[in-house]
Amino acid sequence: xxxxxxxxxxxxxxxxxxxxxxxxxxxxxxxxxxxxxxxxxxxxxxxxxxxxxxxxxxxxxxxxxxxxxxxxxxxxxxxxxxxxxxxxxxxxxxxxxxxxxxxxxxxxxxxxxxxxxxxxxxxxxxxxxxxxxxxxxxxxxxxxxxxxxxxxxxxxxxxxxxxxxxxxxxxxxxxxxxxxxxxxxxxxxxxxxxxxxxxxxxxxxxxxxxxxxxxxxxxxxxxxxxxxxxxxxxxxxxxxxxxxxxxxxxxxxxxxxxxxxxxxxxxxxxxxxxxxxxxxxxxxxxxxxxxxxxxxxxxxxxxxxxxxxxxxxxxxxxxxxxxxxxxxxxxxxxxxxxxxxxxxxxxxxxxxxxxxxxxxxxxxxxx
Length: 367
Description:
The chain is α/β, with parallel strands linked by helices. The protein has helices spanning 15-25, 63-66, 133-146, 163-176, 193-199, 215-223, 273-279, 281-287, 304-311, 316-336, 338-363, and strands at residues 30-38, 41-47, 54-61, 80-84, 89-93, 99-103, 111-116, 120-126, 149-155, 181-184, 204-209, 248-251, 257-260. The strands form three sheets. Strands 10-9-8-11-13-12 form a six-stranded mixed sheet, sandwiched between helices.
């Protein structure tokens, strides 16, 4: 049967996934896409009994997939799976194309997969609160690192009464998100929703952002019915309450599927060196013109990055944000990679020794 006529085609099934699933099909297993994971159980959408329409079923997870010891390899919303419908167990996961990963707040420096097999990472930023470019850049770094294409959506545009002020906010977001599309929308008035729905028509999207960013309201508008609960934000600090409690994959009215996620209070980097580079592409380009290939862009002579800051070509805020994310990513990598941690320790000791030597030269020979 051609994949275009496959009952799971609207959920993203294609020729590549059919090829990956072929060995499991030979074992009599059924393909399915995970739409929700909750405490060792998952909901999957699988071909219906008539072979034409998809149906959602709740199945148990194979214990081997849950107890791997690697939090990055357990089942996640968006995964494609091989299911044994006779027993109701997931037997295997198909290879992932993309994965959106953040570091947890745990002291163990673990990564947490938020969504997989995503084509577009929709970053919701509420215009009901002051725009924070640094927070947006953090989301963008993780989005680029995941392999998905980021899309910035400024929600609650109806709260900005002045069109000139709205255009100014869009420009600010575009400056913080080079290479990404920025859209201003309002689920209340419908402004911009038709454009956003058209962008999300094909493939899989994940909706990310802080609590109170209006993600659930936006998801309801895109799906065309009330599928997620919503609450008002708190008056005292403008923050929202978690109305979405689990990551859920939703079919969109105009085509494509959307993974809605709970609000994220903290978004730590996780092995996101490439993503940071894409987020600050103009700094990476300038760095290639520095006199020294290992320039730290702090006080080195011939630094093209610092020169751009002095001329106003590069905002100092962008460089500060870049430095911050680079340091954080290196710190996380060092905590999770013993070899890299040892290399950093050796470099630190070498710098200490060089500092002592220079101090002794400055003091002169001892009497």
